[in-house]
Design a protein that fits this description.
Helix content: 40-55%
Distance between the termini: 56 Å
Largest sheet: 8 strands, mixed
Structural class: alpha+beta
Number of strands: 29
Strand content: 5-15%
Number of domains: 5
Amino acid sequence: MSASLKKDDNTPSLAEASSSISGSASGLRHRKNAASTTQNSGLKPPKNAHQTTSEPRSSAQEDKSDAAEEHQPSYLEALMGGMRPTEDSKVHGIAIATMDKYFRNSALLLVVTWLSLVVTVYLAAPKEDIVRLSGMEQRTAILGMSLIFVSLLIRFIQLLGVGAGKGGPHVSSAMSCCHNGFFRGLWETAAQNMSGILLGGFTVLIVAFCTDFLMAFFPTPVMLDPVLGTRVHVLRWCEWCPCTAFMTFMMEGADLYWPISASDTKPQQEQPNTEQGPPPDFLKKKFMHAATQGVAVSLGVLLPFCPGFKTWLFCITTAVSLYLTNFPRMLERRRQIPKKLRDGASVEEAERYNSAVTALRLRYACTAVWTFIVASFFVSSVFGPRFAREGSFLLDPAANMVVECLSDVLSKVLFLITLLDVHYAIFDPFSRSERRLEELRKLMSAVWESSSDPIAISVKSGPNGGLSTLLSPAFFGLGGGRGPLRRLSKEEIKNLFRKKSILFQLSQDAFPVIDVTKVTDDANNAEDRRVKPEHIVSFQYTEFASGFNTAQSLVFKGQEMLPDKRALAAVADCVVMAWHAKEREHVFTHNLLWAREDNNRQVLIHSEAKVSRLDENSLIVIIRDISERVKVFNAEKELICEATSRKKDAEANRFTRHEVKNGLLAAIGLYETLCEAQRFQLTKCHNESENSGSAGFDQAESGGDNNVVRCMNELGKSLHETLDAIMVEAMTRDLIHDLYRPQREWVDISAILRGRYDYVTYDFHSGNLTRFPLITKPCPLPTFYFDPILLRVLHRQVLSNACKFGQTGGTVLTEIIYHEDKKALQMKVINMPGHLHEKLVAMGSVAQEVVFAKGKQMHDQNVTDTDSKDWSKKTEASVLPGEGGWIIQKCAKAMKGQCSIQFEESRTVFTVSVPAKPHGSVNVKTVINCKSFRLPPETWGIGIDDSKIQQKLLTKFFEFAGIPSERIRVFGKNSEEIMGFVDFVVSFMGCHMGEHVLLIADENLDVVDEAARHKTISGSQLVESIRLLLLPEQERFLTSLIRSANDAASDVAIYKARAHGFLPKAPLKKENVLETLAHLWMTRYPLNKTGIDEDSASQSRGRLDSFSSLDSETSSLYEAVASTPVDILMAVNEMSALFANERVLEDWAMVKDKLHALKGDLLTLHDSSKAIAAVGVINSLHTFSSHEELIERWQVLREQVMALSSSCMAVQEI
C-alpha cells in the first residue's frame, strides 16, 4: 500500500474493521436464518415504506420493476434467496415435523403397549410357569441388561456433548450453580437436542433394559412350546412385539423421499407424482408395513399358547410370510431412490437425496439384523434340538435365552447407532441449519464475486468514528479501465479482480450535520457531494470469504494497480447517503460523478441504490448502473411523442374518410364479444340466413369506452334472445308436426336449467335462487343423454305456466329426482296457489285437460288485467315464451316421456317424467369410448379440396387421426386431379383390397376447363359416383365423409345420402379429431362388425403417439386443425387481383367461388367467432349489382380480414 495514506489515531485498524465486517456478515447469516424461519411460519417481511425516484424510467422497465417490487421480497432477501427454502423444501420440512410428532406419540404408545402385554402375560400364564431364572439364563439376562445400559448411557452422553458443542448455554451456565441447576441444564440440553426418532430409539432401549431387568431379578413366565418342546421366555416376546412394530415405523418414517420433479428417478411421463408433496398413500404404506411386522411378532407370542400342531403351524407360517414382506418393500424403496445425485442438483435436492440414502442404510441394517434373529430362532428352537449332536450347546435349555438375548442386544445397539446418523441427517434442526448456513456462505461468496452490480457492506466503527466499508469486485468495472486496463472491457476487468474486494475506511468528516427533512431521494447535484477523496483514510484489498487481508494487489510492469480514489469517493458518497435513510428498505437514485486521475476525464454513471439495513450499525447497499435504462427511457419518450402525434392525425383523417362507410360496422360490432362465446350458434344462424338469401353482418373493432361496453352487452343480449326465440319457434313448428328429432348429447341438467350451460339467461335462471330454487336428488346429478335445447325449453315452459297459475311473485320450486330402479328422471315444478286456485281445484281432472289442450288459456284475464296487483303477471307472461301446457306435452313426447299437473289445496305440482340413462350405464347403446378409439392400422387417408389451405389442413387432420404421412393422399391442386379423382379412388381401392380407406371430400370444388370457363363440381356427387363404381366387397372398406361450411339440415341430409357422413368445416383440436371420427366410424362399422382387434388398436395407438412431436405451423399454438393468418393473407391478395380489374361482374362466377373458399378458410381459424362478421360481408356481396358498390364492399371486407389476420399473428407471436 502507498505510504502516503493517512491513518487517524482514533480510527480502528483494518484488521479490526475486517473482523467487524466478518462478524456482521456472520450475524447477517443468522438473522437471515431467523427471517427465513419467520417467513416459513407465515409472517411476512415489512414492505418498503417509501420509494420515490426522480430518475426517469422507460415505461416497459418501469412496469416490470413495479410488478417485481410488488411481488418479490426485499432486495436483501432476494440476494440471500439461497437460504430460503422452496415449496418442495417446505413440504419436506413439514413431513419431517409430522413424522417427528408421530414418533413422540408412538414412543408413549410403545411403553403403554409393553406394560399392557407384560401385565396380560403375568395374568394369563399359569402360576407354575412363572419361575425365577437361574444359572446361565439369569447371567445372560444381566449381561444383556448391562450392555444395553452402557450403550444407552454412551449415546446419551454423546448427545449432551454435541448439544453443548452447538452452543447450548445450559451446561456451561449451570456449572457455577447448584446441583439442581446443573441437572436442570442437562435436562434442557437433552430436551433441546432430542428429536422424536431419537426419543423413540432411547425408548426402545429402555424397554429392552426393563425386560432384561425383570427376567434377571424377578419371576418371569417361562412356557414350553407345545410342538418344539423348547423353553419360551414370554416376556422377551412381549418386548419384541411392540418394539418391532415401533422400530419398523421409525425405519419407514425416516424414509421421506418421494419423486417431485423430472430430475428425480424417473422421466416426467413415468412419474406417479409430479406435484408438490408426497403421494396420497405415502403415510398409509408406512403404517401398514409397521402393523404387518407387529402382527408377525404378535403371532410369536401366541406360539406357546397354541392348542395343537395345526394352529402352531398356521401361526409360524403366517408370521414368517408377514416378515418376508420386508424384502419387496426394501426393493421398492431402493428403486424409487436414485442411485446417484444428478449433476447440477440444488442444495435442497442434495439434502433430500442424502436423507434418503441415510434412511435406506437404516433399512438395510434393520432388515439384516432381523433376518439374523429369524434365522437364529429356527437354528436354536426348530432345527438345533432335532439335529444337534449330544452334548451340543443347542440342546441346553438355556440356549434359547442366550440366542434371544444376543439377538436382542445386537439389534437394539446397531439400531441406535444407525438411528443417530438418521437423527443428525434428517431430524436434527441444528445440523440442518449448519448445512444450510455453509451453503449460504458459499452462495454469498459466489454472488459477491460474480455480481455485476457493486455491493457494499458498511459498518459503523463506533459512536464517534467513521465507516468501515467492504466493496465487491464489481466496483472495478465502473467507468471502464484506466492505465494498463484501458484496453480491457468491463467484464474482463471484473474477471481480473474477481476475488479482489476493497476494504476502506471513511473519517467522521464525511458525515456533516445535515437536516434530514431536506434530504431527498434525488442526489444528482454537485453541491450534494459529501465525500471527498481525502476523507478516505485507508483502503486495501481483501477477500469476502475470509474478511482479512489475504488478497495481494495486482502489479503491472512493476507498478501496483490501485483503485481510483476519486471513483471510490463517488461510491462512498452513495454509501453515506444510504446511512441517512431511516427505513429498513430504501431505494434512491444517485449520479456517480468523478474525474479520472490519469486524464482528468469526467465520468457520469446514472445509478440506483437499494439499501437494506441490517441493524442500527450495519447495512448493505447495492449500486446498480441504470445508464442504459435512462437512455432507453429518453428514446422511448421521443418515440411515444412522435407516435402520438402521428396517431392523432391518422385518427382524424380516418374519421373524416370513413365515418359514413363504417357507421353500420361500428354498430354491429357491439356484439362481437357475445359472438365469440356463441360461435357455433351464430355460424348456424348465418348458414340459415345464407340459404334464405338474407344479408349478413359485418364487424368493426369495439372500443374500450364503458358506454360502448354497456351498449354492447345490451345489444348482444337482445340479439341473442331474438336468435333463441327464432330457434325455439323453429323447433316448436317441428314439435307441432311431430317432425323434431332431438339432438342428444351428454349434458349437466343442473347447469342447463340454472342457465350456466350457454349464454342464454333469464331472470329466473341468472342467480335468482330465492324465487326459483332448484334441488336435485341425488346431488349432484349424473350426466344424462338429452337434447339440451329441448330440455331447457321444456323447463322454461313449465316455469312460465307456474308463474301464470301460481302466486304473484311467489316461490317456484324445481325438484329433479332420478329413479335408478326405473331408469327415469322426474321433474317437479311446485308453486304456491294463485288467486284463482280454488276454482282450479274445484274443476278436478277437467283443469288438467284444459291445461294441455291446444289454444286454450285458463288465465287470459291475468295477462290482460290492468289492475296494479297483477302487473307482475303481465310482465312475467311477456318475458317467458310459451303457448300453454300442450307444448310441454309435445316436448315430453319428443323425449319419450309424459307430463301431468295436479292442483292441490296448498300448491300446484307440474310433473314431467322421461326415461333417462346416466353416463356409464350399460343400457346406453350409444356410448362410445372415444378415448380408446383408434383407426385400424392399415387405414389410408384420401382427401380432396381445391383450396391450398384446406389441403394442408386435411393432411394434418389425417395425421392427428393416427394415419402416417406415407399413407395420406390429398388432391385438388389442379383441374386434372379433381376431374380424375373418381378414377383414381376406384383404381386405388382395387389395388388395396382389404385395407380401410378414410375419404374426406370438400363439397364445392372449383374447376377451370380448357375453354377457361369456371365451374363448380360437387364433392358429394363424386363420392356417390365412387360408391356406385365400387364392388360391394370394396365399398365395405370405404368410409366417405363430406366436409363443408354449409351445415343446414337439408344440406346435411344430402351429404349423408351420398356419402357415409358429414364433417363440419370448423377448427378441430388435436385431441378432438379421434373423438369426432369415433362417432362417424362406429356408425359406419358397429362394434360387432369393425373387426379391430386389440393388437391393431395398440399398433394404431403407438403410431398416433409418434405424431405427437410433429411441428405444425397451423397448430403450434393450440394444436388445432385450422387456417393460418399467412394463408388467409395470400388468399386475400389473390382476391385483390381479381377486384383490381373492372370485370368483376363479368367474372362473378369465379369471384363467387373464390369468396366461398375464403369463407371456408375464415371459419377454420382458431378464433372463428371474430370472423363471423367478415363471413357476413361475403354473404352480402351478391346483393350488390354495381361495380362501384362491390369494390367498396370488398375494401371493407379486406380491411376486416387484414385486421383479423394481424390479430391472429400477434397472438401466435406471444
